[in-house]
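User: I'm writing a short methods note and want a consistent example. For Phosphate ABC transporter ATP-binding protein, I'll paste the sequence; you return only the structure tokens, no commentary, since I'll be parsing the reply automatically.
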Amino acid sequence: MDNIQEAITLQNVSFSANGTEILHQLNGGFPAGNISVLVGPSGAGKSTLFRLLNGMRSADKGEIYIHGKNIAQFDPTDLRRTVGIALQQAPMLQGTVWKNLSLPRKLQGKELTKEEAQKLLRIVNLDEQLLDRKAKELSGGQKQRLSIARTLVNQPPILLLDEITSSLDQVSAHEIEKLIIHLNQAYQTTIIWITHSLEQARKVGDYAYVMMNGKIVESGNIDLLTHPSSDSVKNFIKGDQS
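Assistant:
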């Protein structure tokens, strides 16, 4: 990935919790304006890496750069405006869809207008008439779209997706995949997507990163998930297909 501008750069990043090293000297970068997929077995450290990239945790060692700026130099609010995150559970507040969409603005002491809220629903292909519906009444796929729309309130140039389709049926998952590809293409949003599905990773990704035991063992063009170089990645892919 030479000569490609990086949205996020990792330099010797390590992280430990309760005396156990979870991430070990991660190096590399995620290309700007592309969809990168992050795959690997459970416990590899993928979600922990996301917590570091979003400022929920701080690395014990090493440096993380967001668009060339050290993550330690970001104000926490500015960081989360730059690096948004959507989670598997798509947690909803009590109340309406509008109330849920308004949360990021309220945390800044600001208001989200009805017109802005309607625009966000259109972006994620939700009916504007859902604005006054209770969020808890939405289907799983609708909740996930709302979660993504809420993340988009701050228009983050980088969007982290942590297993956002793993609890959805195949049709809903496919719709979310199309939405994310649209966001990437229409707004040049940098997407980094943790997925347990290699099929999904191959379908949506431009670049792939394989994590095992807290390390990035192989990275490159998405083709590496079909023709990996390392034996460990070959065994991981073979195990996924068996």
